[in-house]
Amino acid sequence: MSVLDSIRGPRDLDGLTREQLTRLAAEIREFLIRSVSKTGGHLGPNLGVVELTIAIHRVFDSPRDAIVFDTGHQSYVHKLLTGRKDFSRLRQRGGLAGYPSRAESVHDIVESSHASSSLSWADGISRAFHVTGQRDRHVVAVVGDGALTGGMTWEALNNISDDNNRRLVIVVNDNGRSYAPTIGGLAHYLNEVRTRRTYRDMYLGSKQLFDRFGRPGRAFYRGARGALHGFLGRFAYNDRMYSNLDIKYLGPIDGHDEAAVEQALRQAKQYELPVLVHVITEKGRGYAPARNDEADQFHAVGVIDPDTGLSLATGARKDWADAFGQDLLELAEHDPRIVGITAAMLRPVGLAPLAERFPARVIDVGIAEQHAAASAAGLAFGGLHPVFAVYATFLNRAFDQVLMDVALHRAGVTFVLHRAGITGPDGASHHGMWDLAVLQIVPGIRIASPRDADTLAAELAEAVAVEDAPTVLRLPKGGVPAAIPALERLEDGVDVLTRDERGDVLIVAVGVMAQQALEVAGLLKQEGIGATVVDPRWAVPIAPSLIELSAQHRLVVTIEDGVRVGGVGTRLRQDLRAAGVDTALNEVGLPDAFLPHAERAEILADAGLAPAQIARDIVDQMRGAKLPAARAADARVR
């Protein structure tokens, strides 16, 4: 039996020898490489926290002691040590989630996969333990150095340092990277701490000193190296930044020296006040392909060859991010006002080509979406046109800035929302399904949703030409579908994709739902029902031609990959009512629920957005059955 096979829960770690712990770390890395290469997932971050996670679970008693992972993508090792070893369907329907999940284990506490919130959680939990008299319980927050660029982290630290009377351990997992290398003044400071010669020379010198005593000296060194790390680190640095916050500081510690990490954590555990343990790790540790990948060190991978790290994906279509990146670069070549903004995700959001061609025209603000949006308003005031490319789910954090800093000041800022709609394997917190409902209440905003590469290029050009209001482009996850040509473009920009003169059903398809809409039209034709399919291109505000077309049809059906509540269908319904048009309208979209991880097609089918389901509901309604599409979708989801 391997050491990993013997681990059914954290307390099985207690009796392991140093040699067994070393073997366990190696077995975990081998397991992760072998498993994640088959399913895809966050490989590099987890390879970097193996010894750290082992040490945390040896020192603290989860779940009695609460362990909170910031972002949570580095929780695979935690899952293994808490008894979850079936990674065969990782991030697939019925399998383990790619982030902590309360449904999976009592050892998982925070499910949100957004960065920089862990210290706020830890602050609240530790206060609750203290107030309720549970003063022997500890809280451990594991936060990456990249997450320290987020404002929430510093808001939490301000409050943590104001009340020291609780058992709270903050582990800073410092690998110099978030998704990509961490940027900004904080990153420069931590890099200075990481590379100062004083600590390195003292540490290596102490090792060489004890080596001179032969086997007894080496044995003593191995037993005492954790304490030596802590002592030498404090002696060399007495770290200024955290000491000014009145938080006790231990480190920096070699995060791949399990004994050293464990010793520092045991020391931190003895204090009845907040302690920060600074741990230095390597993303992708122990896997050469990851370590050799300068872009993101295998932060997230698809299906790969475990030996070479090369992708095994075949026939992949051009990605939306790649298409956007090339289109933006072409526009920037001719328009010097255009600048790109990213929140620590340069490559995933397609800004790498612009950064390579015009380095000074791309700004990486770190994991700070609120700052990015407000700063964009300032850039617009100064005469530039900022394009903030960000995951749709992450812009949720900056809604106030979009509303009060950008829209209120009529700033010409373009937001390009990647992974809008259902994303699939990453689960509830990553689905970009709220942006249409949330953003369309912003006065003056204009929201487009391209259906293919051609409409993306055109709508991006139209967006950056707007100088008096925020504009939004929604891009889904995955490959760009084949082009869907329009039969005609109406005067206000609406594309008619197929037309039926009988006036039965008008289908309004938002973005990539155009393909589903065309398939629905084909199925309806087989039932003797005619359908006109339109892509509004700019879904918000509602185009006047949609009001006119709605008045000419018996039924209007809107199809969108956002929540129905407050979605485009709701907006169209309100505008129809205001115009005195009484055509019946069905809003087909996602339920207002947190949807689990699964393939995109599976989730859409569950929500009633598969073409056959939409067509069946329309046929039932057209023939008099009282089964609205929205009610049928809700029934399937529940």
List the helices and strands and how they pair.
Elements: H1 18-39, H2 44-47, H3 50-59, E1 66-69, H4 76-81, H5 118-131, E2 139-144, H6 151-160, E3 168-174, H7 185-195, H8 197-211, H9 214-237, H10 240-243, E4 248-254, H11 258-270, E5 275-280, H12 288-291, H13 320-334, E6 338-342, H14 352-357, E7 362-364, H15 369-381, E8 385-391, H16 392-395, H17 399-407, E9 414-418, H18 435-439, E10 446-448, H19 453-464, E11 471-474, E12 488-489, E13 495-498, E14 505-509, H20 513-526, E15 531-535, E16 538-540, H21 544-551, E17 555-563, H22 568-578, E18 584-590, H23 600-606, H24 611-622, H25 629-637
Parallel strand pairs: 1-2, 2-3, 3-5, 4-5, 6-7, 6-8, 8-9, 9-11, 10-11, 14-15, 14-17, 17-18
Antiparallel strand pairs: 10-16, 12-13, 13-15
What labels would you give this structure?
7-stranded mixed sheet; 6-stranded mixed sheet; 638 residues; disordered C terminus
Spatial extent as radius of gyration: 27 Å
Percent range for β-strand residues: 5-15%
User: End-to-end distance, in Å?
Assistant: 43 Å
Return residue spans where pLDDT drops below 50 for at least 5 consecutive residues: 233-238, 625-638
**Oligomeric state as shown:** single chain
Q: Tell me the number of strands.
A: 18
Number of helices: 25
Helical fraction equals: 40-55%
The secondary structure category is alpha/beta
> What does the main sheet amount to?
7 strands, mixed
Give the overall form: elongated
The pLDDT mean sits at: 87
In short:
The chain has 638 residues and is of the alpha/beta class. The chain has 25 helices and 18 strands.
